[in-house]
Amino acid sequence: MNTDHKLAAIVFADITGYTAMMEAHEQRAFRTLQRFVSAVKASVAQFDGHIIQFWGDGCLAIFESAVDAIDCSVHLQRSFLADAQVPVRIGIDSGEILLTDSNAYGNAINVSARLEAIGVPGSVLLTQKVKEELKNKPRYKLDPLGRLALKNVKEPVTVYAVDDGILPVPCSKHLERAGVQRRKRKWRISAIWALLASAMQVVIDIT
């Protein structure tokens, strides 16, 4: 089996409520899945990405550029909202992954999947790491959702939602219903000691 380590922007996309859709109307759900697969294949190719795998109603794709990953995701969501009415959520993270002949592994993949799961249909959520890669290319307004504790992710993740005036942004109530907790930043010990030292210096100067 061939393996390769590489840095990539990871896009995880999934149809919201597909199981319930299948139970309600099997043929309609299948047509929705076909539109999803067709649109994702075309868009990922257009923005120089690579599809790792389709499974069920989800897709994992990678891009060498975070800009291409976001452009592809926004393009997909706009098309789904305007025409196909396919209820898709998308999460994006970046980092080092392990590629094999048929799959990919890495913490960034898990994070992108967790971001997708807390989104709303039509949303594109991304991490601080992805945002930092866009510093010199501010294509979209990004709404901060806070530092969120994601399921099976060890450290809280700072999350943003793309807000282009068309794509929806998850509200606080939605995040609460999704079981997501906001985490406040803890003061570093070094910062506390610096404040204490400063306060002691003030006392010494006064006396």
Defining traits:
single chain; 207 residues; alpha+beta; 9-stranded mixed sheet; 9 strands
Describe this structure in words.
Helix 1 runs antiparallel to helix 2 and helix 2 runs antiparallel to helix 3. This protein has helices at residues 18-24, 26-46, 66-84, 107-118, 128-132, 172-177, 189-206; strands at 4-15, 50-55, 58-63, 88-99, 104-105, 124-127, 141-149, 157-163, 181-182. Strand 7 and strand 8 (157-163) form a beta hairpin. Residues 186-197 have low confidence and may be disordered. Strands 1, 2, 3, 4, 5, 6, 7, 8 and 9 form a nine-stranded mixed sheet that branches. By secondary structure, it is an alpha+beta fold. 43% of the residues lie in helices and 29% in strands.
Present the secondary structure layout:
Blueprint: E1 4-15, H1 18-24, H2 26-46, E2 50-55, E3 58-63, H3 66-84, E4 88-99, E5 104-105, H4 107-118, E6 124-127, H5 128-132, E7 141-149, E8 157-163, H6 172-177, E9 181-182, H7 189-206
Parallel strand pairs: 4-6
Antiparallel strand pairs: 1-3, 1-4, 2-3, 4-5, 6-8, 7-8, 7-9
Helix pairs in contact: 1-2, 2-3
